[in-house]
Design brief:
Distance between the termini: 36 Å
Helix content: 40-55%
Strand order of the largest sheet: 1-2-3-4-5
Number of strands: 5
Shape: globular
CATH architecture of the largest domain: Orthogonal Bundle
Largest sheet: 5 strands, mixed
Number of domains: 2
Number of helices: 10
């Protein structure tokens, strides 16, 4: 049986991959979700049990240069933690393995906050970059598109706060500033569109719009971005 199982697929493929690694999951196996979105840990827990699951957030800019060659362009670290909060021994052990392998990692005492926090960047940049076929720094550099990014982020922050996750409003400007100062970042949805693959819109802006509607919060920017990407996704 495996000590660790890392789930790194698109959120819409989470359940379809269960059979690929189910036979390797034993009593002591830890399943780490390194995926975008805020629901994957719960989905995996429903199949394998909450006690086996950990959450993770990856911050990295990279792209496939050629078959078998990945070009690392920006950032490069991960954050892991137990969905229930706190810092566990198993999280510290896995973090040590990552760091010992040259992958920068740290343990969070509130991984839910980190997962919802990463969604600030994703709701702001992923869809608009895919729609415009443009990398993130260029979108952040132009005032008009930067305002769209900021509005989408602010809508998600309001949704998060109403859902019990206390994200600071300043995260919008902080994420934009980091993007402007960072290296080349081609968001995952732009990679997918260029390759003719289905884009993960329901995980990002679609999720913001859906939760907003449930909570009675208007999310016009996220809804608009979601509908445009859904148009592209129709035949994928």
């Amino acid at each position: 049986m495996a000590d660790y199982a890392l789930v790194c697929v698109k959120s819409y493929d989470t359940t379809s991959t269960f059979d690929l690694y189910k036979s390797a999951v034993g009593r002591g196996t830890v399943i780490l979700s390194l995926q975008n979105g805020v629901d994957n840990e719960q989905i995996i827990s429903s199949e394998f049990g909450r006690e086996k699951v950990m959450g993770g957030v990856a911050f990295i800019g990279s792209r496939v240069k050629e078959p078998g060659v990945i070009l690392h362009t920006a950032f490069g670290h991960i954050t892991i933690g137990d969905p229930g909060g706190g810092v566990s021994e198993r999280a510290l052990e896995l973090c040590q393995i990552f760091n010992g392998s040259g992958v920068k990692c740290h343990v969070s005492g509130d991984i839910k906050q980190d997962l919802w926090g990463k969604m600030v960047w994703n709701t702001g940049f992923n869809a608009i970059c895919a729609i415009l076929d443009c990398e993130a720094k260029a979108v952040a550099s132009y005032e008009g598109t930067r305002q769209i990014v900021r509005s989408a982020m602010s809508e998600w922050i309001e949704v998060a706060r109403s859902s019990g996750v206390d994200l600071a409003e300043s995260l919008a400007d902080k994420n934009i500033e980091i993007t402007l100062k960072g290296g080349e970042v081609i968001p995952s949805m732009l990679h997918d569109r260029r390759r003719g693959k289905k884009m993960e819109i329901e995980t990002f802006n679609g999720k913001a719009a859906k939760l907003g509607a449930k909570l009675g919060i208007d999310t016009p920017v996220n809804l608009t971005l979601a509908e445009i990407v859904r148009f592209f996704n129709r035949n994928l």
